[in-house]
Design goal:
5-stranded antiparallel beta sheet, globular, binds glycine, about 425 residues, single chain, about 30% helix
């Protein structure tokens, strides 16, 4: 098969790495890819993965490319092309593509749609309201004592969520989005959600229109600094599985979300094929869905795929073709940890083009994979090319061993300004208090 992966981050490197291991794949492309992706080789014939310089949102060029290269399966990594309708476009032209269509991708591309769907179908979530009018939005935020998340309705490059702790902050956030139009069309409406407390856990379901297969648990670390301090980021590190949940507890949490979600999709005629990734908060009143994402998590993918024993291409085909009910997904019992190394200044402004050293040494380490997120090749060297640069990922029999290995590998990699959190998976390793 000829396969095309759309995207250029750490998630897409992990997808390419796993797809390259498939016995079904004879040629693999990534658009636009990165330096790490361009160094992967196929298990079947040793060919290098090829990167095509086409942006993930340039739908007409992606379509022409897929037609010209006779691509048998296109795999969509990021949310933007899904929201723009890449799946619908490819399908209209008779091409096989994995990911939700534009209607189904609304679970991520419209926060208001997702929240109202949850309310219609009794999916556990928190108190919330959707507003286009700033005065009404301020009144609702005041009812919540100003303790709320103010979210731009549409996609806003991961920056459209403002966390507020008092009425002044809430009013400022509402004004920024609805009056100041900080996110343009994406902020024509806001969703205001009450703030809730608890531990967050990431759920991933592979869906085929009628069936949803649950992945193991994982946990992201979204703040930039240790102890969950600092600004929100795309994700600074993750691990799987989450040891503070038994398999039964995790299954119960997943069921409380996915059963009403599947029923809701059936009733509303939503044909969801792809990954559904709900972010869930475990509160003292039970699990509550914070948001839905319509694609693989980044960096969650980097800890799932090293644990996946099944052929990913076979699973993606079953998802596209509505055959997931006939498949089983096999996972290794090992734990996996990913530590994200970021550019100096990230999540604010940062420089690009800084040489990265130490990758050859980490390439030789066992049970280790350094996934590239924001890298490029300049004159035969790998340089930084984004905010999140690398996802240093290790797997081992225990979470402690995987964590130790990931930090030991990260210490071997150097680039000016590099920073990473020192506490990925640390809370998960603390003894569980039983009271
Ligand atoms: N793990 C955060 C995200 O993928 O959005």
């Amino acid at each position: 098969m000829n396969v095309l992966v759309i995207g250029s981050g750490g998630r897409e490197h992990a997808l390419v790495w796993k797809i390259a291991q498939s016995p079904m794949v004879r040629s693999l492309w990534c658009a636009p890819g990165n330096a790490g992706i361009a160094a992967e080789r196929l298990a079947t014939n040793g060919e290098l993965v090829q990167c095509a310089p086409i942006g993930a949102e340039d739908l007409p060029s992606l379509l022409s490319f897929a037609q010209e290269k006779r691509i048998d399966l296109t795999v969509v990594g990021p949310d933007n092309p899904l929201a723009l309708g890449v799946v619908d476009l490819f399908q209209e032209h008779g091409l096989r593509i994995w990911g939700p269509n534009r209607q189904a991708a609304q679970f991520e591309s419209s926060k208001v749609f997702a929240q109202q769907f949850m309310e219609r179908h009794c999916i556990p979530t928190m108190r919330s309201g959707a507003f286009a009018d700033a005065t009404e939005a301020r009144e609702f935020a005041a009812e919540l004592g100003g303790r709320c998340a103010v979210k731009a309705d549409g996609l806003a490059l991961g920056k459209g969520v403002l966390i507020c702790r008092n009425p002044a902050e809430a009013n400022q956030a509402i004004d920024e989005i609805l009056v100041g139009k900080a996110f343009g069309k994406a902020g024509e409406r806001v969703l205001i959600q009450e703030l809730i407390e608890g531990m967050e856990v990431s759920l991933h379901f592979l869906c085929d229109g009628t069936t949803a297969k649950l992945f193991p648990s994982s946990q992201d670390h979204k703040r930039a600094l240790d102890g969950d301090e600092g600004l929100n980021t795309g994700g600074m590190g993750t691990y799987s599985p989450a040891p503070f949940l038994t398999d039964q507890q995790f299954q119960e949490i997943a069921d409380s979300v996915i059963q009403p979600w599947l029923k809701g999709c059936r009733e509303e005629g939503i044909d969801y094929r792809g990954i559904l990734y709900p972010g869930v908060m475990l509160t003292k009143d039970g699990p509550k869905v914070l948001e839905f994402n319509s694609r693989f998590g980044d960096p969650e993918t980097q800890v799932y795929l090293p644990r996946l024993k099944s052929d990913l291409v076979g699973l993606l085909l079953a998802s596209v073709e509505g055959r997931l009910g006939e498949t089983t997904i096999e996972w290794s019992s090992e734990a996996c940890v990913c530590v994200v190394m970021a550019s100096g200044g990230y999540p604010g402004g940062y420089a690009k083009g800084i040489p990265i050293n130490g990758l050859e040494e980490t390439d030789r380490l066992p049970q280790t994979k350094v996934f590239h997120a924001g890298t490029a090749t300049r004159e035969h060297s790998v340089v930084t090319n984004g905010g999140r640069v690398l996802g240093v990922t290790c797997w081992a029999n225990t979470l402690q061993a995987a964590r130790d290995a990931a930090y030991s590998a990260a210490e071997k990699i150097r680039f000016d300004g590099a920073h990473f959190r020192r506490d990925i998976a640390a809370k998960a390793l603390q003894p569980i208090r039983k009271n």
